[in-house]
Amino acid sequence: MNRIMKKTILLICLLITGVLYAQENFLSIKLSQGHPRYLTDNKGKAETQKLIKEEPWAQEVFEKLKQRTDRYADRGPEWLTSRLQMYWKTHATEVYIKGEYYDHAGGEKAPAPTVMYTGARSHATNYVRPKLEDLKPYQEDARGMYLANGTLEGRPYEWVNISKTGNIIQSINVEILGIARDAAFLWWMTGEKKYADLAASVFDTYMTGIYYRNLPKDLNYGHQQTLVGMSSFEVIHEDAVNALVPLYDFLYDYLKTDKADKMDIYAGAFKKWADNIIDNGVPHNNWNLMQARYIMSIGMILEPDASYPDKKGGEYYIDYVLNRSSIRQWSLKQLADYGYDTETGIWAECQGYSQVVIGDYTDMVTIFDRNLGMDLTGEIPVIKKAVAADPQYLFPDCMTMGFGDTHPGKLNPAIFARMVTNAQKHGKKDQERQFTAMLKLFDPDASKSAAEKKNVKVAVTSFFSDKPLVIDDKIPAGDINDYVTPTFYAPNASWLVQRNGMDKRHSLMIAQNASEGNHMHANGISMELYGKGYRLAPDGGIGLTLYSGLDYLEYYSQFPAHNTVCVDGISSYPVMKSNHAFKLLNCYPETGVKVDYQPVSYSEVFFREPESQADQNRMMSIVTTGEKNGYYVDIFRSRKVEGGDKMHDYFYHNMGQTMNLTAADGSSLFLQPTEELAFAGAHIYAYSYLFDKKSAETSKDIKTTFTIQMPDEDNISMNMWMKGAPERKVFSALSPMTEGLSRIPDMPYAIKEQPTLTFVARQQGEAWNRPFVAVYEPSSVKEPGCISSVTFPEVESGVAGSHVGICIQQKEGRVDRIISSDDAGHLCKSGEMTVQAAYALWGNKQGDDCIFFLGGGTLLKTPHVEISSLTVTDVMLVYKEGVWKYAASTPCKVRMNGKEYNLLPGHDLRKL
User: Fold this and answer.
1) Distances from the Cα of 531 to the Cα of 443, 664, 754, angstroms
2) Using CA atoms, how far apart are residues 433 and 805, in angstroms rounded to an integer?
3) What Å distances lie between residue 27 and 20, 299, 315, CA to CA?
4) Which of 129, 139, 383, 442 has minimal CB crowding within 10 Å?
5) How are strands ordered across the β-sheet holding 647-654?
6) What is the pLDDT of residues 71-85, one digit of tens each?
7) What pTM was computed for the model?
8) Distance CA 888, CA 876 (A)
9) Is 695 left (phi over 0), alpha (psi -120 to 50) or beta?
10) What digits encode the pLDDT tens for the residues 261-282?
11) Closest to 355 (Cα-Cα) out of 347, 363, 366
């Protein structure tokens, strides 16, 4: 048999295997027969009636749903239908857009009114969305919409071009469709014809209008053409589908009889919608899941493939979600393989969008359980791991980090509830215990009985997918410390955290990130710092009009909005989907390992800044000095690979209303107004967003205090000491408000009204051998800081390099001496301390040794103690509870008090 024939036979075998695999998947899927079958099935009516009879919350929701719907049903179906935003007169079949804005409609006249397209991709508009009662029936006017101008006094009405109305048109239609959906449910429950008439009238008009109208065309022939949906500029915001699917499902029997001649049109409209969502969108991020949800929903309520001439029915669209992939729509499995790190459970986007993704995946788990009888977690096991890993995003205030296109927020407890439901359905007791404990931790109300539940959402879903969960009362709530680790690194999204606890008031935490994955900013090695209950050094956020705004493009997404170092005023690279990660060089404790919080943690990361071709290295440490106290160490080295460095700018932003920048000894630096930080000089635009700038050229060590004036007068401060250097300038400035914090409730001052306190240190020339070296300590009036002084002694070494010495004198007598080097092989000496390490700390309290830490090195030597290793190691040696304890990453030796100890590796502190 020749080689070509063998290859042909092999190919045929592979094709047959693929077909059989797809068929096997289908054999395991059992769609419910008849309707409804999306939120419930034909048994659901009796169950829902029983629920309403027995549960007070269900009675309340049902009655309120009726009252809300009766307001429109009692007016007759025409009243609500006529308020739909349609091309009532022109019956336009074509819609034209220019990029992200509506342009005009036209084309041949359709046999029926068609659905009007919304005004813009962004929701932002100066005009007020009218109430349904304020709309005129059958409104379509060449002048656009007649709306109130919300930016002018008195809110006068004026004619507005549709392109300036944001999402008003879509919002009106979705509200009307939602009322019709509720009416369809009430008809299914009660049999009252007024509900069916209302639902059918709205549904028929809207779906016929979708059927006869084509997909919008972009006159710019741009990227937007690959994103547009039938009702929205983004296929991920086809919110009308969320109402239409259950509407059709509950009303199916009525439509089948009363609108029998239109059933093919309704199915055709749904399929047109699903086909476009498959064809458009983005496959490699959160969009794909949102698209899949719409496709899946439509597939659930369509009839079997054999019912349609094109053989595209329920199985076809469900299979597309499960097994098929096209250029802009990947299968659930392929997407999970692409976006999730199976080792960490972290998704490759900023945390705000990762929360959307895990929410959608767990929602899919519920849909598969409810509608298909399949356990999706068995097919995609990383879902369970991702839910379990979600708390790693949290600061001690139990709100997420703020990097990238996101806002800090709490975890969505629904993801834990869905995993409990999945466990209960499939008899997975360990999983039920795990996620019940997490659910009770993040939603204490989850422990309440169904009868105790208040304020249940007045929605159809409250009787089905959002129905209060019955959980095991014997399972206790979890402890937040069970779900986080002292350090955690997510390489696929390039973020790293260090924490010394999860106490909201007293714990410290560092969150560092670069720019790997989606919805990322150009920020180099950026960091956030936490203290006294707040993220004192926050990320700037996303901007007032999200990622379509000029403030986002020029400032919030760029280096100067972050706590980082910008090189030559030009550091930048593509935002949104970015591919610029940092590399983790050293870290202690080991990332992701569950150990006790350590008195010292540190990390060292490396980043190649692409625009300036600069190497950057950031070493950060948390040193815990007491139950309520501790400080941060930040050593940032930066230099261009080929030399020719003009300057390196260290940016630091802090919460608060006041900032005091002086020399370390408290003397004035005589700061003077300046315009030096600016776009002028061929720098990036972001520099021009800084204002009220003052500067001084000095080689002195400096101290800066940032203060939050608290309502209770227990003012919170971040105290920063920084090593001086020749050719160094320091600046105090204000920058745009910290938009990322603007949505957090109960902040101590109005975030949106307060510009961000900003410190900048500019190093002329390279900043590698003259790095930025800073110590930060949070404090408050009632809990003052422990540091009395910070100095930066010289470090001796026989080899040239970037060698840093720090001495922290504390008020209660402890002195911490730190040495850091850019080369762990260099022998460095400062005073009585000798090291070969990336980072080493020696703490001595009133003459007695109390702590030693060797980080990424082989030697730490003091007058009474020597730690050595043949290989690079991390060693912690601490005097605790009257005895010396240690932890080590590799075998090493300790010489102390004339004795030599051979230490074995271990993560937890143990007796020497």
Assistant:
1) 25, 22, 20
2) 49
3) 10, 16, 11
4) 139
5) 565-567, 647-654, 756-764, 728-735, 691-697, 672-673
6) 999 999 999 999 999
7) 0.91
8) 6
9) beta
10) 999 999 999 999 999 999 999 9
11) 347
